[in-house]
């Protein structure tokens, strides 16, 4: 460990902002709060850190660790206690100074604050709580704050912090208890799940208290995979709320933007089916807003970690994000996408295309008659385009020209739909035929498949550039 005394604030910022880059569970969405007299800032439907929101705005958060010192020795973490790296810690006043000065200069719209474990979970949580309290009460900062809850900390501290923040997250780290025991033996899976459950219960209670109707989770739903016991035990155990600790003067809901978590993939041997089963259980039983998937990077070069000679599994991460999108917005369930006999996603096709090819008996779908949820299952038709179809066909009978104008991706959808009982051109409804059309030439393979293409970060939501053959493309272009 390298310790430097009298470190400047700028140097601390360099170290602790760089250390925070490995935490991908950083969103700023789900809350809409206007500015108020006597305070500074607001929070209006923000998006992902350093990216674009749904309305096209570029959003930035100050993303830092409070400290990169840590008492734990997780094998996959750059900040583990056995690593010889430069260590730094902010004070609560320094975080407040950075946040306010950056906000005044219009550099940021909010704060994302995570941390290593300094001294103990309680000690670290107290420092984080003091930081956020100073921002809200002393500096009157009304902007967006996303904060990490520390597993093992006193529930009263976590409870109090939730009244000051917009979103909270507790990282699950690894998909199963077995893998956590193998690579992070100092951590306990149940200790990680308990604050997630605590935050969920307080959010539900707060909604009921102020009269917001919502579909709250009252009993465990169907859980699959090897993580049944841990999740079921936490969900089914009768848990009482900690003492009501809403600070005086706080006029907002408890964690209004919900909570998220992060799972590292590729560090252990879990299949995609096991990972997605855990995600499904978290969505169904803990009311999470997002599960983030972080491709494992062997930054420590530890012989207890898997070799990554071909780079991080970014394509696998991409497929998991696409499948996660299907769970949250398209009405799919993990058991429809994968099972014990087919435990991993096809890297050559996005999960919805792969599912459609394995269920060709359900296709083609007539776009002028199918309901909204049936349309959502057609490759090339998303949530927005499905709504456009439902609205447009109230006043017209749609054909392929109309579908193109409505934003349907015909190069995929054309194999799975009919308009007025007709396909766009003669198509053989056969799994091998359609697959060959989608993957007919080399440059249509996803990024990272070819050995000459280096790994790169992919879009979370857009499908890769599959195309049909040139003669078919000409027909589409001429409609």
UniProtKB/TrEMBL annotation:
Pfam families: Radical_SAM (PF04055)
Domain of life: Bacteria
Domain annotation Radical SAM core: ranges: 64-197
Database matches in InterPro entries: Aldolase_TIM (IPR013785), DNA_rSAM_put (IPR023874), Endo/Exo/Phosphatase_dom_1 (IPR051675), rSAM (IPR007197), rSAM_sf (IPR058240), RuvA_2-like (IPR010994)
One term of GO molecular function: metal ion binding
UniProt keyword list: Iron, Iron-sulfur, Metal-binding, S-adenosyl-L-methionine
Protein's recorded name: Putative DNA modification/repair radical SAM protein
Organism field: Mobilitalea sibirica
């Amino acid at each position: 460990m390298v310790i430097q005394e009298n470190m400047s604030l700028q140097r601390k910022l360099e170290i602790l902002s760089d250390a925070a880059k490995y935490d991908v569970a950083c969103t700023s969405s789900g809350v809409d709060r206007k500015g108020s007299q006597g305070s500074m800032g607001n929070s209006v439907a923000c998006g992902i850190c350093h990216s674009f929101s749904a309305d096209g705005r570029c959003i930035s958060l100050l993303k830092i660790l409070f400290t990169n010192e840590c008492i734990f020795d997780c094998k996959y973490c750059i900040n583990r206690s056995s690593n010889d790296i430069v260590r730094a810690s902010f004070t609560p006043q320094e975080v407040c100074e950075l946040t306010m000065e950056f906000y005044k200069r219009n550099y940021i719209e909010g704060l994302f604050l995570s941390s290593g474990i300094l001294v103990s979970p309680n000690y670290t949580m107290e420092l984080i709580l003091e930081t956020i309290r100073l921002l809200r009460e002393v500096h009157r900062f009304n902007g967006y704050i996303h904060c990490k809850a520390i597993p093992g900390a006193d529930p009263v501290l976590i409870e109090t912090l939730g009244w000051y923040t917009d979103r909270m997250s507790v990282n699950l780290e690894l998909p199963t208890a077995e893998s956590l025991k193998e690579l992070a033996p100092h951590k306990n899976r149940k200790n990680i799940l308990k604050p997630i459950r605590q935050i969920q219960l307080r959010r539900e209670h707060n909604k009921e208290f102020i009269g917001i109707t919502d579909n709250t989770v009252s009993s465990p739903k169907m859980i699959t995979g090897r993580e049944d016991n841990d999740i079921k035990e936490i969900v089914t155990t009768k848990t009482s709320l900690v003492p009501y600790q809403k600070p005086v003067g706080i006029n907002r809901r408890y964690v209004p933007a919900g909570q998220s978590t992060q799972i590292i993939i590729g560090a252990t041997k879990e299949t995609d089916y096991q990972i997605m089963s855990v995600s499904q259980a978290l969505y169904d039983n803990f009311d999470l807003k997002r599960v983030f998937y972080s491709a494992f990077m062997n930054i420590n070069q530890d012989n207890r970690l898997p070799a990554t000679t071909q780079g991080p599994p970014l394509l696998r991460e991409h497929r998991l994000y696409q499948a996660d999108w299907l769970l949250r917005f398209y009405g799919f369930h993990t058991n429809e996408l994968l099972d014990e006999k087919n435990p991993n996603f096809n890297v050559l096709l996005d999960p919805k295309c792969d599912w459609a090819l394995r269920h060709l008996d359900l296709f083609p779908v007539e776009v002028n008659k199918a309901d909204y949820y049936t349309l959502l299952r057609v490759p090339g038709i998303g949530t927005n385009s499905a709504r456009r179809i439902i609205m447009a066909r109230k006043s017209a009978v749609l054909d392929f020209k109309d579908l193109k104008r409505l934003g349907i991706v015909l190069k995929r959808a054309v194999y799975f739909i009919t308009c007025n009982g007709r396909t766009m051109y003669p198509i053989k409804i056969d799994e091998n035929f359609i697959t060959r059309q989608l993957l007919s030439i080399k440059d249509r393979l996803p990024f990272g498949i070819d050995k000459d293409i280096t790994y790169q970060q992919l879009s979370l939501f857009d499908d890769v550039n599959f195309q049909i053959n040139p003669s078919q493309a000409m027909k589409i272009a001429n409609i």
